[in-house]
Design goal:
alpha+beta; OB fold (Dihydrolipoamide Acetyltransferase, E2P); BirA Bifunctional Protein, domain 2; nine-stranded mixed beta sheet; five-stranded mixed barrel; 29% strand; elongated
Length: 498
């Protein structure tokens, strides 16, 4: 195998020869009359009529036998053979064909016919180069293993696939299916909410103050204003301002950014759908979430059941609903309902659960849930009634000052949605944000900050409201049977190469 630098050198030599022939190897325009799938779908008719066609695509196979040549041209709809004969295209045009390489984009003008070996092809009358490839494309190989075709290539390293997604899609066209499903899921979410009367809006990505979640932000600087800005960690506080403004059903689909670690379910840049509905609570949000994902399953998989990691998940309604404390009791036999800090702390130490500085009973209960319960929630489960300590933006549960009306949806051991009966008491909200600010002073960099403008908006009055956030990337993981978020983001964040 030739070194890559040598191959690139040979390609550049061919490029110069094309230029020396007075031909632009990167023309401004192309012309196409048919996509390849149309040729395939109408083969009998096109052959009978000797249909004149012009196709455009990438040359992904090529061979010559003297005055005759063959090749395969692909576009995003399919692949077809081309037949090139020197006597038909002419000597000058045949020279162009000889200077082509795999990976070049070409335009073929000709007619549809079937070769003596029975191969449906386009007989070229003219070949136009549209873009010269200067770098060798990794070779895809195939062999039959246990009666099935197995494909492999020089481009099999997973990290390299993510870094050079354009080659991943080029060499592994089945990957495109994941992103087609992603687009369909986003479209279905929008259609569902639009039909329910929600208004889609856009709120600032650059914010002078961040909030709406427990997370560290990315920081940037605006030169003209000489002001630091944060990339938003959530859309929540701006969407609630719109509820105050009288928009009773509102949602946003967009990017959030959190300056946190990366693992199989977390990427610093991710897509979130958040919605808020006036005169609703977290029970309404459960019903909406259940119905939304059920409808997505019907549209994407054609069924209320899917297979994920060789196990069946059923979205048949209703889904299980259980409190965090009850689930911990069910799994461990430990009752944390009294919020006895010393008792809970002792149980955590016994089970070697790390206790963060300044963590109260509510935070420890959340830790117990994450360790003992969360990984075991495979079927759709609404985990309800969270500790107030870890939910500064949710309303207190009547009759229990330690809990709030909040749920998270878990499927296959992962969180997919988070929702509250939203806190609309500006006095209580201020107290909670100020308590969060004290945690920040003690070193908790993910604690919320005090947003005076948001608090002022609440003082104008916000009706009872239900709020919901759904992780789009994780939904795509679920419906494409992927276990890594990097598989469903076209260009995920990666550590820079040294």
């Amino acid at each position: 195998m030739q070194p890559e630098s040598q191959v690139i050198g040979l390609k550049k030599q061919k490029l110069q020869k094309i230029i020396d022939l007075g031909i632009n190897p990167f023309p401004n325009r192309s012309k196409r009359t048919h996509k390849i799938n149309i040729l395939r779908e109408n083969q009998d008719e096109f052959v009978k009529q000797k249909q004149k066609v012009t196709i455009c695509g990438r040359l992904d196979a090529m061979r010559r036998q003297g005055r005759i040549g063959f090749g395969n041209v692909s576009d995003d709809s399919g692949r077809i053979q081309i037949f090139v004969k020197k006597d038909v295209v002419g000597e000058e045009n045949y020279e162009i064909f000889k200077l082509l390489d795999l990976g070049d984009f070409v335009q073929i003008e000709g007619e549809c016919f079937v070769t003596q070996k029975g191969e449906y092809s386009v007989k070229a009358h003219k070949i136009t180069i549209l873009s010269k490839n200067l770098r060798p494309i990794p070779t895809v190989k195939e062999k039959i293993v246990d009666g099935k075709i197995k494909r492999w290539d020089e481009f099999s390293d997973i990290e390299l696939r993510y870094r050079k997604r354009y080659l991943d899609l080029l060499l592994n066209p089945e990957i495109k299916k994941t992103f087609e499903i992603r687009a369909k899921i986003i479209n279905e979410v929008r259609n569902y909410l639009d039909n329910k009367g929600f208004l889609e809006v856009d709120t600032p990505v650059l914010q002078t103050l961040y909030g709406g979640a427990n997370a560290r932000p990315f920081i940037t600087h605006h030169n003209t204003l000489d002001t630091s800005f944060y990339l938003r960690i959530a859309t929540e506080l701006y969407l609630k301002r719109l509820i105050v403004a009288g928009i009773e059903k509102v949602y946003e689909m967009g990017k959030d950014f959190r300056n946190e670690g990366m693992d199989r379910t977390h990427n610093p840049e991710f897509t979130m759908m958040e919605l808020y509905q006036a005169f609703a609570d977290y029970f309404d949000m459960m019903d909406l979430t259940e119905d939304l994902i059920y409808e997505i399953s019907k549209k994407i998989s054609g069924s209320e059941n899917i297979i994920y990691q060789e196990q069946e998940i059923s979205f048949k309604k209703p889904w299980k609903r259980a409190s965090m404390i009850d689930l911990i009791l069910e799994e461990t036999g430990f009752d944390a309902s009294d919020f006895d800090y010393e008792k809970i702390k002792k149980f955590c130490k016994k089970n070697e659960i790390e206790i963060e500085p300044n963590a109260g009973a509510g935070k420890l209960i959340e830790e117990l849930f994450e360790v003992f319960v969360e990984p075991k929630l495979f079927q759709p489960t609404f985990v309800i009634d969270y500790p107030k300590e870890v939910s500064p933006l949710a309303k207190t549960k009547p009759g229990n000052p330690n809990l709030v009306e909040r749920f998270e949806l878990f499927i296959a051991g992962n969180e997919f949605a988070n929702a509250f009966t939203e806190l609309n008491d500006p006095i209580d909200q201020r107290k909670r944000l100020e308590a969060q600010a004290k945690l920040r002073e003690l070193g908790d960099l993910e604690a919320n900050v005090v947003d005076e403008d948001f608090l002022e908006a609440l003082e104008y009055g916000m009706p009872p409201t239900g709020g919901l956030g759904v992780g789009i990337d994780r939904l795509v993981m679920l419906f494409t049977n992927n276990t890594s978020i990097k598989e469903v983001i076209l260009f995920p964040q990666m550590r820079p190469e040294i």
